[in-house]
Amino acid sequence: MANSFDLGAFIREQRRNAQISVRQLSRLAGVSNPYLSQIERGLRRPSAEILQQIAKGLRISAEALYVQAGILDERIAGGVVVDAVLADTTLTERQKQVMLEVYDSFRKENQRRQTDEALAAEMARRAAPSNDAFAEAVDTIDDLDDIDDAGEARGAGADDADPVEPVVLPPLAGPPMRTTMTRHNPRRLP
């Protein structure tokens, strides 16, 4: 949290950068000259309303003064949009605050949606049965097809072909499911 001296020094620096005197700022902000001088020297801690008036007189964002005063936490991700809204002199401080709140709520909603989608995808991946046993079974069936195709290419009939041993598939990991597999068309029953 910033102390009063840091706030006063910040206001003095902003006033000097704007090349205006304490009296001019006092008139622009509607704050008495002695009170403004005490704020700059760190002897007084102004309210949020007074800070808003000073910010208006300095033509800076009231949020910047609120951060210096410790009223607001500094935003980590300002970004171009936030900077543009804060720099717009045609908007009031309240309008800027409302716009930034709406913008922030949209960003949080989108982040929440992305997190939910990623979580759902991860849960689906974890719930899916292991594909190793299934891939092994498909490879075995493909090997049998290749053997069968080779026999047909030689002109061998069913009587000439070597007998094929039945294939015993290992159980699949995960919840049991009903399947019917044909030689060429593996499919899953509901």
Q: For the terminal residues, how far apart are their CA atoms?
A: 62 Å
What characterizes the major β-sheet?
Answer: 2 strands, antiparallel
Which percent bin holds the helix content?
Answer: 55-70%
Mean pLDDT: 76
H and E string = HHHHHHHHEE
Count of beta strands: 2
What class, by secondary structure content?
mainly alpha
Strand arrangement in the largest pleated sheet: 1-2
Task: Walk me through what this model shows.
The mean pLDDT is 76. A two-stranded antiparallel ribbon has the order 1-2. The chain starts with a helix and ends with a strand. It contains eight helices and two strands, in the order ααααααααββ. A hairpin with a 4-residue loop joins β1 and β2. It is mostly helical. α2 packs across α4 and α4 crosses α5.
Pick out its properties.
190 residues, mainly alpha, two-stranded antiparallel sheet, 2 strands, rod-shaped
Write the layout of secondary structure elements.
Blueprint: H1 4-17, H2 22-29, H3 33-40, H4 48-58, H5 62-69, H6 79-87, H7 93-127, H8 131-153, E1 179-181, E2 186-188
Antiparallel strand pairs: 1-2
Short description:
By secondary structure, the protein is mainly α.
